[in-house]
Backbone:
């Protein structure tokens, strides 16, 4: 049994039930749309988001129908944003599969994303789950704002640490936060507890994104450094810190590479070496552990049971994973 399966154990039967419910929520009478929906279901990943919803809900009591609605809503809206992201990024692959736009072109991919969004909205409205809809819609708004903020800053490469945290809080952490808040909400928790769970998810999401940033520098023996973020002109925490430790000339030289030579592998390696030499990796690891510890401390204030243990294991998995 792998680590994810162990973490999933307290909610294994709920995850199985959810799979059927989620497939049903994506069905369409339009043949082309139904074919694409089947393709999307087939290439699903680790299903971390539904897992977070069910663990967060079951920590406060037995799973109700509202938890299945919350998990389906989040997965539908998340899938919609991924389909749209692939169009925006002109990306032809996702998790080793062809993206929807690669197989059916951009026009259909955009319409598929719209369809998924509408299914999510209708699902929550039909079930009268307006608080869940509010939690999740807010996350989608934040994700869009975070993405646009990152695009705006990539043009000028003037990101400070506080802006970096604004971007990842909105882009990545907001969805993880909404999973935890929606789970608590579905279990009937009070506003104060829902907010505590939202914050727990946000802290976990920030740690998760910093870990992703570190992969770009080839940590944890995952092979050669990737340099993908540098090639995409993304200013991540290791690089931001390294630039803060530099002289004016060093900074100008590195920013020039990221701006103008970001497709030259030798130059990208130069940036990676610079970040390592300036202590950017150690700094980012320390920050990641700081957010992990804050998330784990919050769990100590919540009901102590198997679901709480699984959430703690998931936080640790987030910062220890190899990919």
Residues:
């Amino acid at each position: 049994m792998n680590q994810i399966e162990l973490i999933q154990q307290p909610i294994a039967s709920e995850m199985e039930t959810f799979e059927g419910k989620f497939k049903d929520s994506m069905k369409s009478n339009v043949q082309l749309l139904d074919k694409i929906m089947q393709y999307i279901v087939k290439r699903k990943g680790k299903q971390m988001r539904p897992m977070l919803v069910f663990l967060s809900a079951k920590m406060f009591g037995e799973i109700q129908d509202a938890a299945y609605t919350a998990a389906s809503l989040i997965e539908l809206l998340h899938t919609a944003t991924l389909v749209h992201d692939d169009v925006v990024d002109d990306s032809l692959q996702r998790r080793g599969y062809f993206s929807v736009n690669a197989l059916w072109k951009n026009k259909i991919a955009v319409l598929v994303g719209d369809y998924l969004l509408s299914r999510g909205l209708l699902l929550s409205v039909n079930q009268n789950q307006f608080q869940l809809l509010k939690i999740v819609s807010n996350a989608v708004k934040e994700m869009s704002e975070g993405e646009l903020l990152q695009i705006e800053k990539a043009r000028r490469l003037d990101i400070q640490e506080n802006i970096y945290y604004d971007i990842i809080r909105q882009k990545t952490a907001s969805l993880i936060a909404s999973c935890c808040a929606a789970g608590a909400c579905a279990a009937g928790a009070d506003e104060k507890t829902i907010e505590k769970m939202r914050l727990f998810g946000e802290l976990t999401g920030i740690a998760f994104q910093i870990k992703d940033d570190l992969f770009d520098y080839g940590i944890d023996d995952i092979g050669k450094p990737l340099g993908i973020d540098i090639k995409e002109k993304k200013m991540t925490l290791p690089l931001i810190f390294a630039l803060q430790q530099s002289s004016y000339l060093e900074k100008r030289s590195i920013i020039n590479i990221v701006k103008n030579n970001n497709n030259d592998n030798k130059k990208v390696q130069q940036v990676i070496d610079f970040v390592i030499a300036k202590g950017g990796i150690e700094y980012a690891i320390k920050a990641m552990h700081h957010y992990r510890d804050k998330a784990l401390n919050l769990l100590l204030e919540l009901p102590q049971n198997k679901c709480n243990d699984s959430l703690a294991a998931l936080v640790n998995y987030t910062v220890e994973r190899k990919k």
